[in-house]
Specification:
The structure is a single chain. The protein is built from 9 helices and 9 strands. It is of the alpha/beta class. Strands 1-2-6-5-3-4 form a 6-stranded mixed sheet, sandwiched between helices. Strand 3 (54-59) and strand 4 form a beta hairpin.
Length: 275
Amino acid sequence: MTTTPNTLTMPTHTLSTHLRELVSACFTGIWIQTHEPPEAIRELTSLCRNEGLRLGTWDCDRDMTFPLEPIQMPGVTDTQDPLAIVRALPSIANGSGTTLATFENLHRFMGSAEIIQALARQIDAGKNSRCVVIVLAPVVQIPEVGQRLTGDDVVRVLAGVASQRGKPQTIRVDNGPEFISRSLDLWAYFNGVRLDFSRPGKPTDNAFIESFNGRLRVACLNQHWFLSLDEARAVTEAWRDDYNRVRPHGALSNRTPSEFARPVDGHAQLPALHG
């Protein structure tokens, strides 16, 4: 979602401060990366109560709710339909102060061009309607890079990730040979993991990894002229290690992705992985 002006990440104890600054500066599209959406919702609720802001929260499993005050949604008959909710945001805001419209699990619908376009229009119009769109999204950590991954390679990487962070419920993948392989199919079946295949020729079905691929290309691959495959592997591995374990990320409160993803008690259970 290229129109979002800023990205925040939990932990929640810094979330209110950052959001207060962004809302005051009239940012109308905010992407929050978090493994703990309920904690983010609680922090947002507290912020809105203290600042006199209106709050709406949407989840495909819980519909659109308004935890602080009842708000009407004229013309909306299906409150589980994300497109209908996004299109109704101007009437929900209705000029009655600033409204934060928070969407959880919206990444499941990022393959819909209609939803993306409706979100972009709402973000553009947010300054007039005084409605801020906030999307709660999973955090993605880079697992491994290679010349070409086979199905066995994917299984090996997933087994390593699962041993450290637990098994995901769902993995979104494209239709590459490594993902339609028998090896991955058997691993997913015996581990109770659902493989969610994107539609052929529809890269927007897996918007998160497509966005990351662009970042990797700009920040690493385009910065080097590789003279050999070994050099390419060494440079890419160094960048991967720096990204995951060395370079602090401002959106992670100056922690690395490895530090942020480190489980506290047992395995961190991931709702989905994208590859």
